[in-house]
Write a structure and sequence with these properties.
Number of helices: 5
Order of helices and strands: EHEHEEEEHEHEEH
Structural class: alpha/beta
């Protein structure tokens, strides 16, 4: 992909940044003018933990520092279509073509709805951030959810567009691909240049 949005930082941040770096190095720069994307070869990460952001940023090699954009945000408990869930208060203003959902920590969301909160250790995380982004995602956008099967089921109930969904039970990951027909010539995704 050209632009990645990651919910939750860690070693995955560095791995994806390295992949973006390698894609950038092999990309024909003359084609960039034919693409509507001002955030090419960037990964935007959002996390509620300053500790994890600091820890991860210390491990980033110098050649990847310009590729990774760290963002700190609180996570609040909300109702979405009548379901208790949570969202980051501030997410990067980008239109990613790959989203990696692996955060926040299950106990990080603050607030209560009818006394229900995510401070209950048995409650699974239910992120609704992708639902708010959905209307602006480009066809072909890919979403990888690491674990969080209950969150995937929430997304399946609430996302309105057409997705191909594959669940790897053994690897405990779910892959969603927005399968609508592509838009105009300027709305190209990185995936179209590397296959």
């Amino acid at each position: 992909p050209f632009t990645i949005l990651e919910f939750g930082v860690g070693y995955s941040t560095i791995v994806m940044a390295q992949a973006l770096y390698e894609n950038y190095m092999s990309f024909d720069k003359n084609k960039q003018k034919k693409i509507r994307n001002s955030k090419m070869f960037q990964i935007y990460c959002v996390d509620s933990s300053k500790k994890w952001i600091t820890n991860t940023s210390k491990k980033v090699p110098n050649h990847l520092k310009k590729i990774i954009k760290f963002n700190h945000s609180k996570v609040k408990t909300i109702l979405y279509n009548g379901e208790v869930c949570h969202v980051y208060s501030k997410i990067p203003n980008i239109n990613p073509e790959f989203i990696y959902l692996n955060g926040p920590h299950p106990l990080d969301p603050v607030g209560k709805i009818n006394n229900i909160s995510f401070s209950c250790k048995e409650r699974t995380p239910i992120s609704a951030d992708i639902c708010f982004l959905e209307s602006t995602l480009l066809p072909g956008t890919n979403i990888l959810v690491d674990g969080r099967t209950n969150n995937v089921r929430f997304l399946q109930r609430n996302l309105k567009r057409k997705y191909q969904i594959k669940w790897d039970r053994h690897g405990d990951v779910t892959f969603l691909k927005l399968t609508e027909k592509r838009l105009g010539n300027l709305n190209k995704l990185g995936f179209e240049f590397y296959y």
